[in-house]
Design a protein that fits this description.
Blueprint: H1 3-18, H2 66-78, H3 80-100, E1 106-116, E2 135-148, H4 153-219, H5 225-240, H6 242-259, H7 268-271, H8 292-295, H9 297-318, E3 323-334, E4 346-355, H10 363-430, H11 435-470
Length: 476
């Protein structure tokens, strides 16, 4: 082995031994400041404490509605937003693979042929013909180059790319959770609207019977034309409530179809038949507060962005230091194809290249300050995300508690209104009260029943908001 080869080997070994140095701060996952316990929340079973068990990953199945579960499963598979988020994740993975390629040598093969003739008055002719005739030139070989990652610039860039992949993962998880929540919300609202329409139809039947009774009393001379007109107006007013509810029902079915990537009215036959509002049939498992950072995609996304910003500081710091690139080539060159590949036609070149920043007018310092500022921004955004999540959980738990109290009160109001309507109908038939009393009591019953249907749906909707705030569901 000659001295040149020995020196080259020593240089390569020195570069490789230095490549373990990594500049810039190492990322440390932040510890979010979360409460030790949740607020006390009365549940459907009457327990007045927060149940700190694991959040059910398929919480929508606990509503006991097969139609809801089927819609959620289909939405997870067909929804366009979920597909777009998955596509963006694949793009992020592809970028990561591109960046990771910088850790490995770049090797390329070349092969070329040319027919040329040099000037007789120009530079030397490699063919030896002094430019008097044309000649063939055959080339073939391998070349490689590799940047020695002396200061960890490439390693930090791969680290930042990994964090960016995690951002895309959490974006996909957030979209998946949102689609699940929207599907459940639209379905609950649809069933609530259908129940409200059923209440209107029941009251319409009562109003029509009252109108028939009033007309009969008019023929018997007991009632007046005014009372008949009032009864007719009551029927028309209740009938007018049907159209907006039917419109709302059709719109919600179409909204569900859009979430499932289906054409308009595709779910009409499947969902047009009225059904009860799905109710959660068990205590609400809300998990431990400390687990919120592992469940909520937005917190995990904020942490990944902080990680990427921290790694970018190391990349900016590495630009202050020299870069060494090892490159080389080996091949063959000949003017005759028969000579190509012979020992005499060989050629090679090996050696390191050094690049040192000498004067850049503050560009590198500005780039470093920019990355430090972005890391600070990402850290603040992480704290804000955690605090916002905490508030959302607390607000949804309070709303769930309030919706249950309102529903229980309205159940009592509906019970009393029904008794009052039965009583006033008997009194009106006996002629002891006028029709105005009947109208007043019936309007009160209609209002209370409509409010109860809305409140029942709101309890389930509030519970969906609780699970959304807790971040449960996307893991499925």
């Amino acid at each position: 082995m000659n001295k040149t080869a020995v020196a080259l080997a020593v240089a390569c070994y020195s570069v490789l031994s230095l490549s373990g140095c990594v500049v810039g701060p190492d990322f440390k996952a932040p510890v979010p400041k979360l409460p030790a316990n949740w607020a006390s929340v009365p549940t459907e079973a009457g327990h007045n404490h927060a149940l700190q068990t694991a959040v059910d990953l398929h919480w929508w199945d606990r509503f006991g509605d097969r139609q809801l579960s089927a819609l959620v499963r289909e939405a997870q598979q067909r929804n366009f937003d979920v597909q777009l988020a998955a596509s963006r994740l694949q793009q992020s993975l592809a970028i990561r693979r591109q960046i990771n390629a910088d850790t490995l040598p770049e090797v390329g093969a070349t092969a070329a042929y040319s027919r040329s003739r040099n000037s007789q008055k120009g530079l030397s002719d490699p063919s030896g013909h002094s430019g008097k005739q044309a000649f063939n030139l055959w080339n073939g070989g391998l070349g490689f180059s590799w940047e020695a990652d002396l200061w960890g610039r490439v390693k930090r860039s791969v680290e930042a790319a990994d964090a960016s992949v995690q951002v895309a993962v959490q974006d996909r998880n957030a979209v998946q959770l949102l689609v699940i929540v929207q599907t459940a919300q639209h379905y609950i609202q649809l069933r609530g609207t259908q129940q409200a329409l059923a209440v209107v139809e029941q009251n319409l039947q009562i109003a029509r019977r009252s109108l028939q009774l009033t007309r009969l009393q008019l023929r018997e001379g007991v009632a007046t034309d005014l009372q008949v007109s009032e009864a007719g107006a009551q029927v028309a007013e209740i009938e007018a409530r049907q159209a907006p509810l039917q419109q709302r029902s059709a719109q919600l079915i179409n909204a569900l179809g859009l979430l499932l990537a289906r054409e308009p009215r595709a779910l009409q036959a499947q969902l047009s038949a009225a059904a009860g509002v799905p109710a959660y049939g068990a205590d609400v498992p809300i998990g431990l507060p400390s687990e919120l950072a592992q469940r909520r995609p937005d917190i995990r996304r904020a942490e990944a962005r902080l990680h990427a910003a921290t790694a970018a500081i190391g990349m900016a710091e590495a630009d202050f230091y020299p870069r060494i690139t090892l490159s080389g080539s080996i091949g063959f060159q000949a003017t005759q194809l028969s000579d190509l590949g012979s020992w005499g036609s060989r050629n090679f070149a090996f050696g390191p290249g050094l690049s040192v920043p000498v004067f850049e007018g503050g560009r590198l310092q500005g780039a470093l300050q920019l990355q430090e500022g972005r890391q600070q921004e990402a850290g603040i955004a992480y704290q804000q995300t955690v605090l916002r999540a905490w508030h959302e959980v607390d607000d949804t738990l309070v709303a769930y508690q309030a919706s249950q109290r309102r529903r229980d009160s309205l159940q009592q109001a509906v019970m009393h209104s029904q008794r009052a309507l039965d009583s006033v109908h008997q009194q009106y038939a006996q002629g002891t009260v006028d029709f105005l009393n009947v109208l007043t009591v019936q309007n009160a019953l209609l209002a209370n029943e409509a409010a109860l249907v809305d409140s029942t749906a709101q309890v389930s909707l509030s519970l969906v908001d609780v699970f959304a705030a807790l971040g449960g569901g996307w893991q499925g």
